[in-house]
UniProtKB/TrEMBL annotation:
Gene3D superfamilies: q2cbj1_9rhob like domain. It comes from Mesorhizobium retamae. Residues 133-246 form the Fe2OG dioxygenase domain. The keyword Cell inner membrane does not apply. Belongs to the iron/ascorbate-dependent oxidoreductase family. It comes from the Bacteria. This is 2OG-Fe(II) oxygenase. Keywords: Iron, Metal-binding, Oxidoreductase.
């Protein structure tokens, strides 16, 4: 076994232990109730700075998106290429099984046939069989005046219904403004907004597209979008962990 493989295995095990330490019953309850849940201090300040520092090194990425060119808002982001950085890949693998449990329960409640495999490797195999082979984890960078329009990250026929975003910058020190925003549209009702306060290293898991809500006559489907409010000052970096691959 070469040194790189051994380091990846150690990182993966550390990520599994880190993720397993959370109260997943409580996080699942929050996802059911609000469409989002916060994992406090998922990564350390040193890890945040290390990941954010990758942004200027193009060899880690497959593409670079200037958001204003596409009407996505203002700001920019880069999609990582395979192999992912060890920490990002390890967290993606470790988070998936816990979120797949929630995703499968949601599918059943919404009457969907879609079921998600127990491991991320098996889910990626399904993506690749469907022609979705490009990695989707991304690193976002915002400056003063930038923002991210409300949107859904859907890249093909297969789309995992929960995503995770990790704030790499410290609010009040590195930037002001730039709150994570989630909106929910219920049938025949006004939209509901959820503003999620995060500190450096905190992660938010959230519904990407649809989720079930229990009503008086059973479960019904609501549609969600997410975005980032205007950056008032400074710089903000975020890493997005998306579990399906893209076409």
């Amino acid at each position: 076994m070469n040194a790189n493989v051994r380091i990846r295995q150690q990182t993966s095990k550390a990520a599994e232990e880190r993720v397993a330490a959370y109260d997943w019953d409580g996080l699942g309850t929050d996802l059911d109730a609000y469409g989002c849940a916060v994992l406090e201090k998922l990564i350390s300040p040193e890890e945040c700075e290390s990941i954010a520092g990758l942004y200027l090194h193009e060899e880690h990425f497959r593409s670079h998106i200037i958001m204003a060119r596409h009407g996505f808002g203002k700001g920019e982001y880069r999609y990582f290429k395979y192999p992912l950085p060890d920490l990002i890949g390890g967290l993606r693998t470790a988070l998936y099984p816990h979120l797949a449990t929630v995703a499968n329960a949601w599918s059943e409640r919404m009457g969907n046939d879609q079921r998600y495999p127990a491991t991320h490797r098996d889910y990626l195999e399904l993506c690749h069989e469907a022609g979705q082979t490009r990695p989707t984890p991304l690193l976002l960078q915002y400056r003063e005046g930038d923002f991210n329009c409300l949107h859904q990250d859907l890249y093909g026929d297969l789309a995992f219904p929960i995503q995770v975003a990790v704030l790499l910058s410290e609010p009040g020190r590195d930037f002001t403004g730039g709150e994570f925003v989630l909106t929910e549209q219920r049938p025949r009702m006004q939209s509901r907004a959820e503003v999620v306060p995060l500190r450096q290293g905190d992660a938010v898991a959230f519904a990407v597209h649809n989720r079930p809500v229990q009503g008086t006559k059973g479960n019904y489907r609501v549609s969600l979008r997410h975005g980032v409010s205007r950056i008032r000052s400074g710089h903000r970096h975020t890493v997005g962990i998306i579990f399906h691959d893209a076409r």
